[in-house]
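Thread: quick sanity check before group meeting

JM: Hey all, I'm pulling together slides for Thursday and realized we never actually wrote out the predicted structure for the chain we discussed last week. Dropping the sequence here so it's in one place. If anyone has concerns about the input, flag it before I start.
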Amino acid sequence: MHSPELKYEIVQKYLDGKGSFRSLADEYHVDKSDVQKWRDSYLCNGFKGLACTNGTYSGEFKVAAVEYMETTGSSLRQTMARFDIKSIASLIAWKKIYYEEGPEALFEERRGGASKLNIKKSTTPEEQAENNEDLLAEVKRLRMENEYLKKLNALVREREKSKKKTK
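JM (edit): ok, ran it. Output follows.
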């Protein structure tokens, strides 16, 4: 993580014509794309655009960012700078969700393991027990499959070994 002061120093050098994206990136040992991102963020939001924040964005904000990008034809980088979004990966994910699931899907909280794995949280002990039984059956099946493949692999190796001896 780079301090806002360092980012500002790099951006100022770029704006003053004292280096290109590449030369400044090499000089400060940062990625060229970071220098571009910092420049864009600074031009749109001033010094506060260089602050290191990990924000939580509302559904309205996400929809507005994706719709702005689409209606204006702005690039991901331009949209990031305009809305002071720190991660291009977030913006890409929002765009994907927007087009695959609709704008209302951007209002859903998606952080955390359960939602990413599409596992429904059980509400009753019976549902939890059933879910546990299903998981145990799956583990048992996978263990059997693993053992089968190990034995098959051993047989194939043994057959290859015997073919080499007979030659």
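AS: nice. The radius of gyration is 26 Å. The chain has a mean pLDDT of 84.
JM: adding both to the slides.
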